[in-house]
Specification:
The chain is of the alpha+beta class and 126 residues long. The protein has three helices and six strands, in the order E-H-E-E-E-E-E-H-H. Strands 1, 2, 3, 4, 5 and 6 form a six-stranded antiparallel sheet that branches. A hairpin with a 2-residue loop joins strand 2 and strand 3. Helix 1 runs parallel beside helix 3 and helix 2 runs antiparallel to helix 3. The longest helix has 24 residues.
Length: 126
């Protein structure tokens, strides 16, 4: 997956935790390079275990896009893609004086609820 916009460190951590908590069993491997407010940050995860993101000394190329590879089991690409805009991963969308952008938080909650709803439907089918 690729994303043009930069993200904040806090939203990246929240998003990774959301994925690991609600879909950890389906995340066989996650690795990527994320643009965190203009800085290159490497991310790695296996199921619900997220390694601490590591800031790199420099970008490996002129490409500043976020790019993440997901190897999953029983999870569709569209499920992950749907969380990217829902979480408002945009370092420039800060509300003056607020620690958390209320609209971005609402999108985050919506993405989390969507994950749980799909999980419940799958459990009922079993």
């Amino acid at each position: 997956m690729r994303r043009e916009e930069a993200v904040t460190a806090a939203v990246l951590a929240a998003w990774l935790n959301l994925l690991a908590t609600l879909k950890g069993a389906n995340l066989l491997r996650v690795k990527g390079l994320v643009n965190v407010e203009g800085r290159p940050v490497a991310v790695h995860a296996v199921q619900s275990v997220i390694q601490e993101p590591v800031e790199l000394a420099s970008w490996p190329s002129a490409d500043r896009c976020t790019r993440i590879v997901f190897i999953t089991g029983g999870m569709e690409r569209s499920e992950i893609e749907a969380t990217l805009p829902a979480l408002g991963l945009d370092a420039n969308r800060r509300t003056a004086g607020a620690a958390i952008d209320p609209a971005a938080y609402a999108r985050f909650v919506s993405a989390a609820v969507g994950f749980r709803a799909k999980e419940r439907r799958q459990e009922r089918r079993r």
